Amino acid sequence: MVGWHHERWDGKGYPDRLAGRSIPLAARIVSVCDVLDAMTSPRAHREAHSWDAAVEAVKSESGTAFDPDVIDATLRCLDELKSISQASRHGD
Fold it and tell me: Does pTM top 0.70 for this prediction?
């Protein structure tokens, strides 16, 4: 899962240039979660993006970077994911 979470749905990722359903499902899920977490976390070179901006970014990559089914599932549980994300940042 860790080794393939940078693969892309369109096959332009790395390390193995896997595409579509040849990418293990767990890696496809982790990929979306990783991007949401990375975008909503502050970095040394930038402030954290808003949750809404991060969601729009992953939605815009549905079918290219990300599995459309995983994006659809993510969108169905956004409130819960946002709550988990906020709780983890505040140590709740």
Answer: yes
